[in-house]
Amino acid sequence: MLTVNKINAYLGLLLAVIAATVAPVIKVPIKGNWNLYQTDSRLFFITSVTIALMAFVLFIRKIKAFKFFTVVFAIWSLLMAAAVYFKSNHYFGAKFFDKVLASTISYQWGWVVLLVAVVLLLTSVRKS
Predict the structure, then answer these.
(1) What is the pLDDT of residues 32-50, one digit of tens each?
(2) SS3 sequence of 91-112
(3) Residue 102: inside a domain, yes or no?
(4) Strand ranges (DSSP E) for the chain?
(5) Of 92 and 86, more confident
(6) Residue 59 belongs to a domain
(7) What is the extent of the structural domain holding 118?
(8) Which of 10, 16, 25, 43 has its C-alpha lying 20 to 30 A from 79's C-alpha?
């Protein structure tokens, strides 16, 4: 039987929402801090739908579905981090310009919040 640690689940969902909506994920020199929506809107919408589905199945108490969506969200977070990294390092297609651009872009604290949210969500469901 699966049990849910509600504190971890709710805190993980809250941090995931913060990381996806308002937390800056990269800092572009002239433009400033960008959140996930400004970085790539498709990544933002897929992440938001995944978080909404996790919250929905948690509130209707479908624990197996919640565990499935937490694993999907963890895998999606890794793919999202890789996508942002490759987009920032291969934006123009020319090695010189990509190297200059990649050296000016810095990653912000939003990734740490996302990582903590993923860890909390993955540890919220366990067998009893």
Answers:
(1) 888 888 888 898 999 999 9
(2) CCCCHHHHHHHHHHCEECCHHH
(3) no
(4) 2-4, 26-28, 32-34, 106-107, 125-127
(5) 86
(6) yes
(7) 2-25+36-81+108-127
(8) 10
